[in-house]
Amino acid sequence: MPKIRRTRKKAPEGYELIEETLNELTIKMKEAENESHEGKRKVESLWPVFKIHHQRSRYIFDLFYKRKAISRELYDWCMREGIADPNLIAKWKKQGYENLCCLRCIQTRDTNFGTTCVCRVPKSKLEEGKVVECVHCGCRGCCG
Question: Which residues form a coiled coil (predicted)?
Answer without folding.
Answer: 15-42
